Records
---
Amino acid sequence: RQPKRLADYQPPSFLVSKTDLSFELDPTATRVSATLTFQRNGAGIMILDGQQLKLISLRLNGQMLTDKDYRLTEDSLEIVKPGNSGVLEIVTELNPDQNSALEGLYLAEGVYCTQCEAEGFRRITYYPDRPDVLAVFTTTIIADSSQLPFLLSNGNKVSETLLSDGRTAVKWHDPFPKPAYLFALVAGDFDCLTDAYVTASGRQVSLEFYVQKGALSRSHFAMAALKRAMHWDEQRFGLEYDLDRYMVVAVDFFNMGAMENKGLNVFNSKYVLADDSSATDQDYFNIESIIGHEYFHNWTGNRVTCRDWFQLSLKEGLTVFRDQEFSADMGSATLNRIEAVKLIRTAQFAEDASPMAHPIRPEQVLEMNNFYTVTVYDKGAEVIRMLQTILGKTGFNAGLKCYLDRHDGQAVTCDDFVQAMQDATGQDLTQFRRWYSQSGTPEVKVQEHYDATSARLTLKLHQHTPVTADQTIKQPLLMPMRIELLFSNAGSSMRQLLLLSNEEQEFQFDGIHEQPLIVWLEDFSAPVKLSTHYQPEQLLLIAGRATNGFARWDAMQQYWSLLISKAVTGGLLPQLPAELVSLFKQLLQQPLADIALTAELLALPDFDTLAEQYTEIPVDALLSCLAHLTQQLAEALAIELTACYQRFDSIAYHYNEQGVALRALKGRCLHYLAFTNEGEHWVNQHYRQADNMTDQLTALKAAQYAELATSNSLLEDFAKRYQHNVQVMDKYFSLVATTPNDAVFTHLDRLTQHSLFSWKNPNRVRAVFGAFSQRNAKQFHRADGRGYQLLAQIVTKLDPINPQLAARLLTPLLSWQRYDQQRQHLLAGLLKALAAQASLSNDVFEKVSKSLP
Ligand code: DPP
Ligand code: ZN
């Protein structure tokens, strides 16, 4: 198996200017006729990609080709003498019903659906399936419209014809040239919610949401979110929608969250369907942000796309950044930043430390699906954010405009993007480009020296990026460090942006008349691990005083990390310091104006965040420390927690910033109250009084974490109540999978027998086994290896069904070197056994083989 390398990129030898497709839909024998108008673009043979296709016929310029005119392999078709230009007609046959990988064209629950990114189009027809071949697509779908009333594809609908055999032919035309990965086809029966949007320049756009029958009322929020996103992109970046129609289809069988196909987004139903009784605040948040994300791709991804898949972050990092900015404007910017940083500090730092470490622009890929990662997406977004910090919002906006003007209609590289930023602002970004090629988490050490006689403050910074599995040589990066100097006179402070570029660098401030307390890395201005020399009291001061909300939360996180690491090193359980208790009392008695921030300040770091601070993760010690601290906080603050909980009357459910904040604060109190003597009472009451899904889940989770006796009966009640709503049942599945004791294994077994469970549905599998392996540290990381064994079995079972899903689930097993000897031994054994299996998919093979020495 040969990986592809970025360094080997060659422009395509042939381009396709026009792609005409015709689909005759049939569950087991769909016929696809593709007519490609091609031109030579350089030297080289004509090789088309194709997988799992049955070739029916092939014509070149009207002439039937015979087997001496072409060469067919497992995954390609070579045309021996194509000439310099011409028309190639390819007829293939496929079996959508058998397609459980959910790539290419598949049939699930009566709906035909495609997923072509990254390399799924080659499962539809033979084609130069690479993002730098852009063609104008015309698509005809032929089907029995009594069974499939909606036949959808990209662009504008050209015609609908009733054929003599009773079938219907619907023709679509997309005027914007696009790579094959943005192609989409959907056929099925849906309820359709329609609305309209008028763009800033007056273009009328019809908005259409296609959802499962009966779910119309659950699509209103997503529709409203789409309109907000369209408006926001006009306001913030001056970007308008460009077609007459914007369609979103929600399907339950989907590997990803959603897909930005031109004019026809396909969404995982999880990220469209919502109402107050079934969706949590988090669900609403996710829907708005993903609706925004896919919409924003229309410019950053579709109008300007990637030259090759190594450049994936060009569109994903940028679009995640855009959706984060959108979410920040729609709700609490501080809370958004906290959530984004948590993800970096958990999953992304873990990826950097794993055998799958890669730069945001990977250099070598066996299976592209393995590179839709937190590094490419979320660290990618952090890199874009740093550009904005360095260039300022105005400079950044100008850079984005230059990039889009310059490259509209093209397939380009990350370098092209940075060049546009540089040209628009005049800022030399040569060193900054290293963020694209260098993997790993930089570590920054800071030292402060204050000299009272000269009133001079000297800050000394040192950066170092440890080697990663993929790369041994690391260079210094250009990183923006936002800081604040706090002076003793409350309210007096000074904020600065430092640009660190050398391995070691000093910054001097004169006229500083007292030694300030320094808040480092406001807003997490660079995705690094920072080591400071704070005393615990200083961190509490920062938590109380820093101007930046994120920095206050971060100081609390550092405070706990410090306390816990001392305990872990000493082999003891941490004791609650008195000053912490009094700070928490104060917060509970007088929550800040920002209630949402208060709720975050009262939270302990999660297991994954703590874990990333250790080379060898002390699983058991961390889990005991967290449980112990929770118990201690509950005991020490029972009165204040109760008062705070009762102080805010529950208001009727509404998804808005204030409602989210209040539920979060009450939820945080309940989380601790569950550990008090009256835990059962509080949890039961919270559950019974809830008029919304957020509060119900908060109660269920609190009961489960505190291992209250009521937990099981509440869960049963919940399952009964929502047995007909599969999106909610996924939440139930996940809850059961996070049972913190031995019983979880029997439960998991039972869940896979549940009538709603299907190994072919990624949402179900993720709800059960994703939750178990990623959110049940206690059982997953059992020292006897039972959790690991189970996951390895599941991966083995899933690989032939859906390799993309199997490879994703496998991730937690890869980092075997991060654990103690016993766990290392167990994990390595399982990985070796996996590697020894015949016929592993490329997806699983790539990850397993990288993880073994
Ligand atoms: N699911 C992916 C995304 O929108 C596909 N590009 O980020
Ligand atoms: Zn995306």
Note: The pocket of zinc ion (ligand 2) is lined by residues 293, 297, 316, 319 (CB under 6 Å).
---
Amino acid sequence: MSTLIIKNLYAEVDGKEILKGVDLEISGGQTHAIMGPNGTGKSTLASVIMGHPRYTVTKGTITLDGEDVLEMEVDERARAGLFLGMQHPAEVPGVTNSDFIKTAMNSRLEEGKSVNLFKFIRQLDKAVEDLRMNDDLPHRYLNEGFSGGEKKRNEVLQMKMLSPKIAILDEIDSGLDIDALKVVGENVTNMKSEDLGLLLITHYQRLLDYISADKVHVMMKGRIVKSGGMEIIKRIDSEGYDWIKQEVGIDDVRVIEEEEEARVMLGQCATREALDL
Ligand code: ADP
Ligand code: MG
């Protein structure tokens, strides 16, 4: 059983502070959910845990079973057992889905060892069937031309194949119709075990109808402002977030306010133009 501990985490992007003191502890066998309106820092937290180079941690710690995660490169984090199912998975033309997964699995083994090809294919076929994906998806370029729902299922496919110790699924429900949501929910639920700690990020309560959570956290303004059980979700579902905003005395839940957000975006466009991207 593994434990991920995040303490007083602060992080910034382009000099803007996005995470403002996040505390969270996830162990194998547990499922945590982070909810919260858009722009409150949920995906940023996921990216920072995985080590996305755009984000700078300015304060706080992240450890996995006592090891300093912030000291690890992205690939080391993956090898240590961290996994992120992304909100917006990138398209990688030229690399097939199946090759991508195989490479990721091999990189977790000792130098010189590789996965048994026969077993790999059998496992992949089974996972594709379990997720009711199209047979051709493993052989197509990673995420290229995948529908929104296919991309999401594909993140879960990777998770099934990689058996992480701690898995973060960021808005895995967005873009899924109700049937697909059911399939994804069943598959994730079947993966639950003492060896897996799950963090589900979502802003819809409906995901949690399919994957139950032991603990629910609400994120606003770059930190977790409330934690509790499923009762929080029920109340958010019927009343929205206003009661929590009132409870913690927050007006605008976003980390960056609208005007500022526009300036950051303009800054990015200007940078892109300057770099001729
Ligand atoms: P959520 O997932 O809760 O919707 P995010 O973590 O995606 O929120 O974003 C929180 C804030 O941080 C937003 O204002 C967003 O624009 C900003 N932000 C996140 N990542 C970046 C980035 N790479 N560049 C600029 N701003 C970013
Ligand atoms: Mg997000």
Note: Residues 13-14, 18, 36, 38-44, 54, 254-256, 261, 264 surround adenosine-5'-diphosphate (ligand 1) (CB under 6 Å).
